Amino acid sequence: MRAISSLEVFLCSKAKICDLCCEVNCLYISNTKLVNLRETSVSLFILYCQYVLLLFALGGGLGRPRRLGIPSPEGERRMTNAHLKVLHFDLESSAMIGASGFVGTRLINLLKEEPAKYTCSNIDLQPSHFFNEITTIGDVRSQEQMDRELKGADVVILLAAQHRDDVSPVSLYYDTNVGGMEVTLKAMEKNGIHRIIFFSSVAVYGLNKKNPDENHPADPFNHYGKSKWQAEEVLQKWYESHPDWNINIIRPTVIFGERNRGNVYNLLKQISSGKFLMVGKGENKKSMAYVGNIVAFVKYMIDNITEGYNVFNYIDKPDNNMNQLVAHVSKVLNKHIPATHFPYWLGMTGGYCFDLLAKITGKKLTVSSVRVKKFCATTEFDATKVHTCGFKAPYTLDEGLARTLEFEFVHPRPDDITFKSE
């Protein structure tokens, strides 16, 4: 971590919070006065919280700070108490790759709520809608750029990926998702960075698996899933020769939320319109993840999961089946939503027709055989590990759905900024 300040003048007996706030005036680094707290925006509340944590860690109580050595205009007197402790205030520098999109934007927004704790940078092929001041246009496939842009980071968060169903040529999946991983690891090693958080996907498991956990064998069915799994294999091999690194992999299910334009949004829009065509019986379960919870978990990993090689599925539980999802949308929007059921074979036939039409016209259509297949599949994944590691999601799944529905279909937005995904 990059230390910016430390407080080195206190040991405690019993007292009140106000004692500390009255007596703490300056921050010091290595016995050198850094800044007067009354002349800076540094929060005394943040200072005190970290101070209290240290006291409890030392087994002491809350007490009046006792000055052991006070710098004077003539010079600094040496500390004489052998038990003097130093309290550090650190900024965690997070270099994000591919954070101009949906998840990255929400993650930056969350971390920037605590500027005294986190600093962020973003390297992306696209500018950021909201955070251009910290965004550098760059390509994860460029070794020279990554070597330069990752300098000074404590942790790398790799979100960059080719993820759409219809990427062409298919080699782009592997150039970006696998080649980009190799480039990133080399740049991290060059810059002395030993922590990475990688966004993989539950797509590594394939379709219609029975509630797979993190130890389930990989069996991806499309190029996106295959390339994500190959990127994980690169990380596995890297960790074998770099056991001192901290490698965290998150495998989220489909992510939804405000401003997202992906399959879940399209589904919610169709349901809310009252013109929804259900393919199949509607009993297939759909694992989902609200973006507000995903980014909260990334923040939790930055702060708490700092050692070893760790893999987490991320799903907000409990899973809804399609019939339950329609009922929940109906409840939130307070409207009756009829659902017409079509047999699976008819839905797939329609999907193949749209595939042919897309090929003839050269246009990317919202309906395809792959999307019909994914819609009808059971996508249920085990998330026991993430929900028993100490992390508590700030929102329930139903709350995330309600927030999204209200933002998109109830209250008008002040702008038209959206993020396309699958």
Fold topology:
Elements (H helix, E strand, L loop, with lengths): L1 E6 L9 H7 L2 E4 L2 E5 L7 H14 L29 E11 L4 H10 L6 E7 L10 E3 L5 H7 L5 E4 L12 H7 L1 H12 L4 E5 L23 H19 L4 E7 L1 E3 L3 E2 L1 H11 L2 E4 L5 E6 H14 L4 E6 L1 E6 H12 L5 E4 L1 H18 L7 H8 L20 H14 L8 E2 L2
Parallel strand pairs: 4-5, 4-7, 5-6, 7-8, 8-9, 9-14, 10-13, 11-17, 12-16
Antiparallel strand pairs: 1-4, 2-3, 13-15
Structural class category: alpha/beta
Helix content: 25-40%
Radius of gyration: 25 Å
Binned strand content: 15-25%
Low confidence ranges: 1-45, 51-89
Fold and architecture overview:
The chain is built from 13 helices and 17 strands. With 422 residues, the protein is of the alpha/beta class. The strands form five sheets. Strands 1, 4, 5, 6, 7, 8, 9 and 14 form an eight-stranded mixed β-sheet that branches. The protein has a three-stranded mixed β-sheet with strand order 10-13-15. A two-stranded antiparallel sheet has the order 2-3. The longest helix has 19 residues, at 223-241. It is globular and about 55 Å long. It starts with a strand and ends with a strand.
Key features of this structure:
alpha/beta, globular, 8-stranded mixed β-sheet, 3-stranded mixed β-sheet, 422 residues
In short:
This protein is an alpha/beta fold. The protein has helices at 17-23, 44-57, 102-111, 143-149, 171-177, 179-190, 223-241, 263-273, 291-304, 322-333, 344-361, 369-376, 397-410; strands spanning 2-7, 26-29, 32-36, 87-97, 118-124, 135-137, 155-158, 195-199, 246-252, 254-256, 260-261, 276-279, 285-290, 309-314, 316-321, 339-342, 419-420.
